[in-house]
Design brief:
about 400 residues, mainly alpha, 18 helices, globular
């Protein structure tokens, strides 16, 4: 049986068992946590070594700059489209309709960081510290320097290249082993979420849940399908099927970073993205490209304005687009981070922060779809950029993509 089928079965059984048993199903959660820990264990060595190898094989700085430029443009454009769709549909469906606001507490805003601090924070003062504290952006910056230097020093860099390449291969091989455990991990996490989120939390906010899911799925169907079809001549069904395992893992773990090893595995093995492009675009995307999070923030901003009876004008909608794009870049790829960053969006637009408390109870449910789309957006980007560089190979001919 194919792995994605087993994961789907784990998912379905998890949902049914969670529904039948209810909150006490939480006893299986450690199985899900074990799965998350197993993948997380690989992130730092995998990202660092594969990015060093990628950057030194890309070699020439012009190409690195070109790939970097395309990646950033893709990330920004798709995120801006995502949040625009979110606002349009949140206005059409009006999830606040009929919801009565009850003051439930106070919430502190997360301040908007200064541009200079953001740039400084990209450079580690201690490379090993960046690795120990899982600081993905700093790891990426350091890895790029090491990779470029390896290719600049020629002969002398070869042993280091071979060393990092070998470690990266070892990590990829461990990802392969851990994937076999994915159906059980997904089962446990889904059973836990379904078992512990009762109807009394979900029903009052059913419209918010509906709009967030609807826009996320629409964005994937239009923007990601369109992007891989137009720029990579890849059939959308092929893309989604090839990336399904990573989507299921993101959906159940709610963490883009924890899903990263699996996302890279799927993009390389199933979609044919070269290791160089995948190890550059996907770690960067897992940290800064979050279309699902931007959609969630857009819908929630409109919902909260509605609940508090605040009318939004065009300039405020534009402000939401800019603020949510920046907030999603700054959101860490861990569960619940998008909700913390929502406070920044609300603050910028001048909306009441207490509104966050209204959606806090359903955050896990919303986090599942947004994380799923966050990683799918990175993979679509990797496919598009690999195709534009002539680095997309068709490794699974049986799925018959419409090839060039
Ligand atoms: N959990 C999301 C992710 O890892 C971030 C968020 O909370 O929006 O991509």
């Amino acid at each position: 049986m194919k792995l994605w089928v087993k994961i789907l079965i784990g998912f379905a059984i998890g949902a049914v068992v969670g529904l039948i048993i209810g909150p006490s199903i939480a006893v299986v959660k450690p199985l899900g946590d074990l799965f998350i820990r197993l993948i997380k264990m690989l992130i730092v060595p995998l990202v660092f070594c594969s990015l060093v190898v990628g950057a030194s094989s890309i070699g020439d700085l012009k190409k690195l700059g070109r790939v970097g430029g395309k990646t950033i443009v893709y990330f920004l454009v798709t995120t801006a489209i995502a949040i625009t769709l979110a606002i349009i549909f949140a206005v059409i469906f009006n999830p606040a309709g009929g919801y009565i606001f009850k003051q439930v507490g106070v919430f502190e805003a997360k301040p908007m960081p200064k541009a200079a601090d953001v740039i400084l924070s990209l450079v580690p003062t201690n490379a090993l510290n960046a690795m120990v504290t899982d600081n993905m952006l700093q790891i990426i910056v350091f890895a790029l320097f090491v990779g470029i230097a390896i290719s600049l020093i020629g002969e002398k860099g070869k042993p280091a290249f071979a060393f990092f390449e070998s470690i990266a291969e070892i990590m990829y091989s461990i990802v392969g082993m851990i994937m076999n455990f994915a159906p059980i991990g997904v089962f446990a996490l889904i059973a836990w979420v379904v078992g512990t989120s009762g109807a009394e939390v979900l029903l009052p906010l059913a419209r918010v849940i509906f709009v967030v899911y609807f826009v996320n799925i629409l964005h994937a169907l239009i923007v990601y399908s369109g992007a891989v079809y137009i720029w990579a001549k890849m059939r959308p069904s092929y893309f989604f099927r090839g990336f399904f395992e990573a989507m299921a893992v993101a959906f159940s773990t709610c963490s883009s970073s924890a899903t990263l090893p699996i996302s890279m595995h799927c993009a390389q093995e199933n979609l044919g993205v070269s290791k160089e492009i995948s190890s550059f675009v996907q770690p960067l995307g897992a940290t800064i490209n979050m279309d699902g999070t931007a959609i969630y923030q857009g819908v929630c901003a409109v919902f909260i304005a509605g609940v508090f009876g605040i009318k939004l004008g065009l300039s405020q909608y534009l402000m939401i687009i800019v603020a949510a794009t920046l907030a999603s870049i700054g959101t860490a790829g861990v569960p619940g981070a998008g909700m913390i960053m929502l406070s920044m969006v609300l603050e910028v637009v001048g909306l009441p922060l207490e509104g966050i408390l209204l959606v806090a109870g359903i955050d896990r449910i919303l986090d599942m779809i947004r994380t799923c789309m966050n990683v799918t957006g990175d993979a679509a980007g990797a496919v598009v950029i690999a195709a534009s560089e002539g680095e997309l190979t068709r490794v699974v001919p049986k799925l018959e993509p419409t090839g060039k």
